[in-house]
Specification:
The protein has 15 helices and no strands. It is mostly helical.
C-alpha cells in the first residue's frame, strides 16, 4: 500500500506540474518560439557587425575573475545560452554551477527514492523532476521579469517622451528612466545608457537592449527609434504613438486571456478529475485499488492514462495559446 500511495502522490505532482507549465503563462509574456526567432536574428546581426557591446565587455571582465576550469565551462555553447537565460531572469548564478547543482540534486533524489521504495521507474521520474526544478525556476523568474518589464515599458516610454519634449537628448532620456523607474526596466535602461556612454552607437545599444529583453514590444520600440534616427522626425511623437500601440496590445492580451479562461479551467478539470476520483475510491473503498496497483495490467492502464492526460494538456494548451 505504501508503494501505491507514493505512486499516487507522484501522479498528482506530475499532473499539477505539467498543468502549471503548460497553462499558467504570464499575461504579457512572449512565446518561446517568438523569443527564439528574435534571438536568432540578433545573433546574426552580431556576427555580421562583429562589434562588442557593453554587455559582452562586462561578461568578458567577469569571466576573467574565474578559475581556468570555471571559465572553460562557462564558455561552452550550452552554458552560454543558459547564462543568457539566467541574466534575463535577474539572477547572477554561474551557469555551470546551476548544472552541477541540478545533477547532484537529481542523483540524490534517485538514491533516496530508490532506498525508500526499491522502484527504479519511480526513482528515475522523481530524480528527473528534482533535477529539472532549478531550470524551471529560472524559466519562471525569466518569464515573470519579462512580463514586468513589458508592463513597465509604456510608462518608461512616457518618461522618455516628456524628457525629449523638455529638451533633453536621447541618452539623458534613457538616464531619467533608469533613475525614476523601478527594476527591471530601470536596470535595463541604465545598461543601455552605459552602453552609449562607453562609445557604442545608439543602434548597437538598442540591439543590446533587445537581446536582453527579446520581445515583440521591445522590438517595436527599438525599430521605431532606429528608423527615426536614420530618417529624422519628431522622436517624441513617435514614442507617443508606440506607447499607445503597446497599451492597446496589452488590452487585447487581457481580453484574450479572459476569453481563454474557460479553456484553461477545462484543462484543470479534465486533468484533475481522474486523480480526485482515484483519491475518492481510495478513501471510501480501498479494496478496489490493490488490483490496479499490484497487477501489471493495472500498471499499463496507469501509464496509458498518464500519457493520455499529457497529450490532452498539450492539445488544450495549443488551442488556447494565442500569440498577439
Amino acid at each position: 500500500m505504501l508503494n501505491g500511495q507514493l505512486l499516487f502522490i507522484i501522479m498528482v505532482f506530475v499532473t499539477v506540474f505539467l498543468l502549471m507549465q503548460g497553462l499558467v503563462v504570464p499575461v504579457f509574456g512572449e512565446s518561446a518560439q517568438t523569443r527564439k526567432r528574435l534571438q536568432q536574428r540578433l545573433d546574426g546581426i552580431d556576427k555580421r557587425e562583429g562589434a562588442d557591446s557593453y554587455q559582452s565587455l562586462l561578461r568578458d571582465k567577469y569571466l576573467k575573475k574565474l578559475s581556468p576550469l570555471a571559465r572553460m565551462l562557462e564558455n561552452l555553447p550550452l552554458m552560454q545560452d543558459l547564462a543568457r537565460k539566467i541574466e534575463q531572469s535577474g539572477h547572477s548564478y554561474l551557469a555551470h554551477r546551476v548544472v552541477l547543482f541540478s545533477v547532484v540534486m537529481g542523483l540524490l533524489a534517485i538514491y533516496t527514492v530508490w532506498i525508500t521504495t526499491r522502484l527504479p521507474v519511480v526513482s528515475i521520474v522523481v530524480g528527473f523532476i528534482i533535477a529539472w526544478a532549478p531550470f524551471l525556476k529560472i524559466r519562471r523568474d525569466r518569464n515573470a521579469r519579462m512580463a514586468k518589464f513589458e508592463e513597465q515599458l509604456p510608462d518608461a516610454i512616457d518618461v522618455m517622451k516628456r524628457a525629449l519634449r523638455a529638451g533633453h537628448p536621447f541618452s539623458s532620456a534613457l538616464k531619467l528612466v533608469a533613475d525614476d523607474m523601478d527594476d527591471p526596466v530601470a536596470a535595463e535602461f541604465e545598461m543601455t545608457f552605459n552602453d552609449i556612454s562607453y562609445g557604442n552607437d545608439v543602434r548597437r545599444a538598442l540591439l543590446g537592449l533587445l537581446s536582453r529583453v527579446p520581445s515583440v514590444t521591445v522590438m517595436a520600440l527599438v525599430t521605431s527609434i532606429m528608423v527615426q534616427k536614420e530618417t529624422g522626425g519628431n522622436l517624441a511623437e513617435v514614442l507617443e504613438q508606440i506607447s499607445k500601440v503597446i497599451r492597446g496590445r496589452f488590452r487585447f492580451q487581457r481580453k484574450v486571456k479572459t476569453l481563454t479562461a474557460e479553456g484553461r479551467m477545462s484543462a484543470w478539470v479534465l486533468a484533475l478529475v481522474p486523480l480526485v476520483l482515484f483519491a475518492t475510491i481510495w478513501i471510501t473503498t480501498p479494496d478496489y485499488l490493490p488490483i490496479l496497483i499490484e497487477d501489471p495490467r493495472g500498471h499499463n492502464l496507469i501509464i496509458y492514462g498518464a500519457i493520455s492526460g499529457v497529450i490532452g494538456i498539450a492539445w488544450i494548451r495549443r488551442i488556447i495559446r494565442i500569440e498577439v
